[in-house]
Design a protein that fits this description.
405 residues, mainly beta, 6-stranded mixed sheet, 1 helix
Length: 405
């Protein structure tokens, strides 16, 4: 319901897609905790917009208090690294590393001494006001009782034991996890350049894919993924739809497609569930695809024809589309009550895939987004159509007009 012209398309190379991802919001991107022999190459890498200020940003690591009794050790701040006065490098990356780091020249050289062999939680936060050694989980139940920061930018739990009891293994404090690695704590982890998938690194930093200070590898998403979405077009929005990709005949029984935006009130700008499409009873088609659309669709035959207005996707602000498992939420539920860009409630057991439509940064008030996969803006507008290229499944902007596109 805006311009009416055709946009030429070309799928980016893996390298170009990796570089483009560096312009996404600030996030953890890669880290190394251990290696054979002395841990000389420990590092934590952030990715963000080139030149972005890190003045109010800190990296903290939550682990255990070695001097507390068993059952009372969880939630202790083991490391604090202030990034005051720093900024993301022109490459789009910022590396905090040991002075002995041989894989790259760190932007900030400091002693890390990351704990090996146990559960750890690494957080990138803004407005940190806590202290090294502070106990954030005073009753040791796996839920933080103190949060001495104004917002969490990004987090990752490095998991040695996925079912901690707080006694023999401390708790971890992020819903984004990596590990265990063959029953052990991962030595390293890295984020795909084109998806929100974390991957295990190798124990030997010289035998794997470590790339501190440079773009990570792109990945081919596995399982059932979001493949294509249209939220806007010229004239009336008759052709809104979403497409999933997966194995032929794969069941969608416990999956739900949801959209997070600003809801109907507009008073709280972020985190409201705007649309819900249950997929119970559906399966991926014989061609490996599944399309859900409203009855007004004219450009194809959908696998699922939804009720009218069920796919009335918002197209005037930032929105995040997610494919989740075992959804228990409801429309207009606020999942980000303090509007800090971190979901306070997650009424699902797993996120299979996600993507965010991003508006121009000149917009006065923008909803937060809840995916590492960002597409847009499209010149000075939001994308009307996005799709994944093959073979690496990098997201691209499609033509605004669905006819002839």
């Amino acid at each position: 319901m805006r311009r009416n012209y055709f946009i030429g398309m070309a799928c980016l190379s893996s390298l170009a897609a990796s570089i483009a991802m560096a312009d996404a919001p600030l996030r953890l991107n890669e880290l190394r905790i251990e290696q054979p022999g002395a841990d000389l190459d420990e590092y934590i890498e952030l990715a963000g917009a080139p030149g972005e200020s890190l003045n109010d940003v800190s990296i903290i690591v939550i682990g255990d208090d070695d001097f507390a009794l068993p059952g009372q050790q969880s939630g202790s701040i083991e490391m604090v690294v202030s990034l005051a006065g720093q900024s993301v490098a022109s490459s789009g990356f910022f590396v905090v590393g040991e002075p002995t780091l041989s894989l790259a020249v760190p932007n900030l050289a400091t002693s890390l001494n990351l704990e090996g062999g146990d559960n750890l939680t690494v957080l990138v936060v803004r407005g940190f006001s806590g202290a090294l050694g502070q106990d954030l989980d005073t009753n040791n139940d796996g839920t933080l009782d103190a949060t001495p920061w104004t917002s969490i930018v990004s987090s990752l739990a490095i998991v040695a034991n996925a079912s901690p009891d707080g006694v023999t293994n401390e708790y971890y404090y992020s819903t984004t996890t990596i590990g265990p690695d063959a029953g052990l704590q991962p030595s390293a982890a890295w984020l795909c350049a084109n998806t929100s998938q974390w991957n295990l690194g190798t124990a030997d930093p010289f035998a794997g894919v470590d790339s501190p200070g440079a773009a990570n590898q792109t990945c081919v998403p596995q399982g059932i993924i979001i493949s294509e979405v249209r939220i806007d077009e010229t004239g009336t929005d008759n052709n809104e739809y979403f497409e999933l990709k997966g194995g032929a005949g794969a069941s969608l029984a416990d999956l739900t497609y949801i959209v997070i935006g600003d809801g109907s009130s507009g008073t709280s700008p972020s985190g409201f569930i705007e649309a819900i499409v249950p997929l119970a009873g559906q399966v991926i088609g014989a061609n490996g695809y599944f399309v859900a659309a409203e009855p007004t669709m004219t450009i194809g035959v959908p696998s699922l024809v939804t009720a009218a207005n069920a796919i009335n996707f918002e197209n005037s602000d930032n929105v995040t589309h997610l494919l989740v498992r075992n959804f228990t939420g409801a429309v207009n539920t606020d999942l980000d009550t303090n509007d800090d860009g971190v979901l306070d409630s997650t009424p699902w057991s797993e996120i299979l895939d996600s993507v965010a439509f991003v508006n121009p940064t000149s917009t006065t008030v923008l909803d937060k987004v809840y995916s590492a996969n960002l597409v847009g803006p499209d010149a000075t507008f939001w994308p009307g159509h996005i799709f994944r290229c093959t073979p690496n499944q990098t997201w691209q902007i499609g033509p605004f007009n669905p006819v002839g596109g």
